[in-house]
Design a protein that fits this description.
This protein is of the alpha/beta class. The chain folds into two domains: about 240 residues, Aminopeptidase, CATH 3.40.630.10; about 70 residues, OB fold (Dihydrolipoamide Acetyltransferase, E2P) (Beta Barrel), CATH 2.40.50. It is about 20% helix and about 30% strand. Strand 2 and strand 3 form a beta hairpin. Helix 1 crosses helix 6. The termini are far apart. The structure holds zinc ion. Zinc ion binds next to loops. The site of zinc ion has 6 residues, from loops.
Length: about 325
């Protein structure tokens, strides 16, 4: 098995597909798939399963990779379909090895915990090579998110990519919090977008379709493949921080009953959901802190104190 720190796609044969496993110092290995174009060109890096309970992107990468013809490509696709194998095997958002949320661990450390080594190795040996970066997320087991492309609204390269991605919801963020794959990309001036999707621990066919279309559209947009992206009408243009660390949060444990649906418009003070105890009696109510649209819902109903339950977004004016 190859060492991730020595990964060099320029040594791989052109006009061919390469499926490799790359090993970190901690002993963990990650799959790295390279569709090496017939001639030189931009490099699209795609990752999925940063959170171990998000599976749509895994399937989208496998299927897209199978369908690509590298002899028709000018440039490369480098894809990591399962970036967090320990969490993937455990079916958990965070790593069972060290409890870390990989999406709060970047840029990591070369000699740190397994998750820190993973973040460091991926960012420095793979992501740093990107002309453009796509990070495939979804709601995971516990959350529901819109099926969407998210981007950094200060980067016109990213907003242009979000327009052609082929998602009917796009969400521009004015601020990018540290610790993410995409914060590393921003620091390196690499444009990026990420996805969200329904989640729920399964792969909804519409979300798989959106992600596959998105990868292909980016390859077309970057000129790695020849042709025009397959656009879809954009129904919602959202704005707001979209940070799942700040939203309506439970202050105690209980059973959550939602009163709202995804992308529903709500008024300040409107009831979003209630938390009940074992007898079904309400112990907490959650209300919209201001007018907005529902951008995240906790769907897994068993809740502990400090769990995020709802997040608002706003339509671009
Ligand atoms: Zn995620």
């Amino acid at each position: 098995m190859a060492k991730l720190s020595e990964f060099d796609p320029s040594l791989l044969r052109r006009g061919a597909k390469h499926r490799t496993m790359q090993t970190l110092d901690c002993g963990m290995s990650i799959p790295v798939l390279v569709a090496r174009g017939a001639v030189d060109g931009p490099v699209l890096v795609v990752s999925a399963n940063v959170h171990g309970d998000e599976y749509e992107g895994v399937r989208a990468v496998y299927e897209t990779f199978d369908e690509l013809d590298p002899t028709q490509m000018a440039g490369d696709l480098i894809a990591v379909p399962v970036l967090n194998p320990p969490a993937f095997r455990a079916g958990t958002r965070t790593s069972p090895l060290d409890g870390a949320n990989l999406a709060r661990t970047f840029p990591g450390k070369p000699d740190g915990t397994p998750s820190e080594q993973l973040a460091w190795g991926f960012s420095h040996s793979i992501l740093a090579r990107a002309s453009f970066y796509l990070d495939l997320h979804s709601g995971g087991v516990k959350f529901r998110m819109p099926s969407m492309a998210g981007f950094y609204s200060a980067d016109p390269r990213a907003s242009a990519a979000a327009e052609i991605f082929g998602a009917s919801v796009i969400w521009g963020h004015p601020v990018i919090a540290p610790g993410r794959t995409v914060s590393f990309a921003t620091d390196r001036n690499i444009p990026w977008i990420y996805t969200e999707a329904r989640g729920a621990g399964r792969v909804h066919p519409d979300d798989l379709k959106m992600m596959k279309r998105g990868i292909r559209n980016l390859l077309l947009h970057l000129g790695i493949l020849k042709g025009e992206p397959e656009r879809v009408p954009i129904e919602f243009r959202l704005t707001g921080e979209g940070n799942t660390d700040v939203g309506s949060t439970a202050t105690q444990s209980g059973f959550l009953i939602n009163r709202v649906s995804m992308l529903q418009k709500v008024k300040a003070g409107e009831l979003l959901g209630v938390l009940v105890d074992l007898m079904g009696e309400t112990i907490e109510e959650y209300r919209a802190p201001q007018d907005g649209l529902i951008g995240l819902i906790r769907e897994f109903p068993i809740v502990e104190a400090n769990d995020v339950l709802y997040l608002l977004a706003w339509e671009e004016q």
